[in-house]
Write a structure and sequence with these properties.
Blueprint lengths: L1 H10 L2 H17 L7 H25 L1 H4 L9 H4 L6 H21 L2 H22 L6 H5 L1 H13 L6 H24 L1 H7 L4 H4 L2 H20 L8 H23 L3 H29 L1
């Protein structure tokens, strides 16, 4: 039983789902709209977590043949046969997605539900099915899934067009490519063997690491702008400190491109986003 739960946790990428859920909570935190009740926040958060998890499960279901060619992913349950790629999954995935979208619509509003659906659709279909093996722009466009999570939070408060959540959504859009390109740099041989045209696979190290650094600088500068739209010193410190860690790692990667430094840059991107999102939520909870 415990093994099955662990396999579901890994297959549905629930750890990533919690990060996407945090993006929604940060979207609520930076939005100047209506205050949500505890139950609205809880249901919306769970809806985002479930929708993200089912799109993650579909990603592993669909990519099981591709995953078999990569050292990093060949131990996944659909590759090893611990999970069978059968119609049960193709039934459960859309049903759970529909339940999460409907729950969000009923408890908050239709706009928030649409953003939740768009996030899952972007990752599960646009990125996984349409773009991943066709273009290096795969993760650039796929990065919209994180942006939609932020916008779901903003829409729930009826502040979709407020500057702060729009800026945070753009930060997420800019964050996703360098995060995954750092991973792709560390696993270039894997991606090349699987025929996935990630940027570090198809261009020089100088160009790929320079592009990662450029994205990092842009997103960090952009992440500071919500201070001019109502966020306080707590948010500023989180954005600046996390951004400094990420940019420093990207500079090191550009100057000394190597697999170990790529992994450190990948980790730094997670630290940056984590500090940014936590700071946004603390800012709202402590100083709102």
């Amino acid at each position: 039983m415990l093994k099955t739960i662990k396999l579901i946790y890994q297959t549905a990428k629930i750890r990533l789902g919690f990060l996407i859920m945090a993006c929604t909570l940060a979207g609520i935190a930076v939005s100047p709209g209506n205050e949500l009740s505890f139950w609205q926040v809880l249901v919306l958060s769970l809806a985002v977590l479930v929708s993200s998890s089912v799109s993650g499960a579909f990603n592993q279901f669909y990519e099981r043949d591709l995953d078999a060619h990569m050292k990093r992913t060949r131990g996944r349950a659909f590759v090893t046969g611990e999970f069978s790629a059968n119609w049960y999954w193709l039934t459960a995935i859309p049903v759970l997605l529909i339940v999460s979208v409907v729950a969000a619509a009923l408890v908050t509003n239709v706009a928030a539900a649409i953003y939740i659906f768009l996030g899952a659709f972007t990752y599960g279909i646009v990125y996984t099915v349409w773009l991943k093996k066709r273009t290096w722009m795969n993760i650039v466009i796929g990065g919209l899934s994180g942006s939609f999570a932020v916008m779901a939070g903003a829409a729930a408060t009826e502040a979709t067009l407020a500057p702060a959540p729009l800026i945070l959504a753009m930060v997420l859009f800019l964050w996703t490519p360098p995060h995954f390109w750092a991973l792709a740099f560390a696993c270039k041989e894997d991606y090349a063997a699987a025929g996935v045209p990630m940027l570090p696979v198809i261009v020089s190290e100088t160009l790929s690491t320079g592009t990662i650094l450029t994205h990092a600088i842009l997103l960090v500068v952009l992440s500071l702008l919500p201070v001019w739209y109502g966020m306080s010193w707590i948010y500023f410190i989180g954005a600046l400190s996390g951004g400094g860690i990420f940019v420093y790692a990207c500079i090191r990667l550009y100057l000394e491109p190597s697999v170990p430094q790529a992994w450190r840059t990948f980790a730094a991107s997670i630290v940056q986003l984590g500090l940014l999102l936590v700071a946004a939520m603390l800012d709202h909870v402590l100083l709102a």
